[in-house]
Specification:
Blueprint (H helix, E strand, L loop, with lengths): L37 E6 L14 H8 L14 H4 L2 E6 L7 H17 L3 E6 L5 H8 L5 E6 L20 H7 L3 E11 L10 H6 L2 E4 H4 L4 H12 L3 E7 L21 H9 L5 E8 L10 H19 L4
Helix pairs in contact: 1-10, 3-4, 4-5, 8-9, 9-10
Length: about 325
Amino acid sequence: MSDRAFPQPQDAAAIPRYAGLPTFMRLPMLTDPTQVDIALVGVPFDGGTTNRAGARHGPREMRNASAFMRKIHHVTGVAPYDRARVADLGDSPVNPIDLMDSLRLITEFFDGLKQGGCIPITAGGDHLISLPILRALAADGPVGMIHFDAHSDTNDRYFGDNLYTHGTPFRRAVEEGLLDPKRVVQIGIRGSIYDPSDLDFARAAGFRVIFIEEFIKRTAEDIIAEARDIVGAGRTYVSFDVDSIDPAQAPGTGTPEIGGFSTFEAQRMVRGLAGLDIIGADVVEVSPPFDVSNMTSLLGATLMFELLCVIAAGIKG
């Protein structure tokens, strides 16, 4: 890796964190995916939201909050910017008045990242964005997924025949051959449901669904050890919906469900993903209009940093 330039965050001891243009982790803003190993990107889209909108503002506020991140992980010692070329590659284009066009635009953007050879870590946006991302990253074969969420997001349709909402992406992903359902783990599922059949698709397909009631009887490390066994050594996507965390610690989200796991439990689980073949990750459903003191945006940015450290540690020079 000695022959490659490694972008570095702005030095907070020289330029205050509140100064300068906001970028993820205060890194340089680039446009060429061939120049990076890991791309930090945003998808400012919430056209799949069925109730409380606002996640379209998530990427901008997570960029602001990411100024709190420093260079080295305090537990693992990973210094991601010394291990991998990392930069902010901007936001995917979206069409705020045309959902289907937005799905096309997002897929094209992520296909460009894939063709450029980099691994994207994405700030959403509502959870529907995972579908067009997977259409790009899993175009050459289904992948496994570790999915943190209060909701399974495997409903069929909403409001008549609307197949594309933030409650349907992973049903569509299985139907389109993007996910290997036998290699999908969902962690933190809870809350009231519309119908007794709501989870039938996930179970019948072969998803491992871990309800919060099971989670609290075990440890975060035990849960992730099982998840690692299920996804194995194959290509794996990581999707983190912030509503998996208790809304006392993550109030800024569109569909809060009480009784979730804690921010620290989330960190421990993400750290346990080290060594997996992660082809991409997202942190979704941060909705700044419902946030308190930007704590959910900070959570989202911190989870992006945790994912960055895990992925960077696996980059081979």
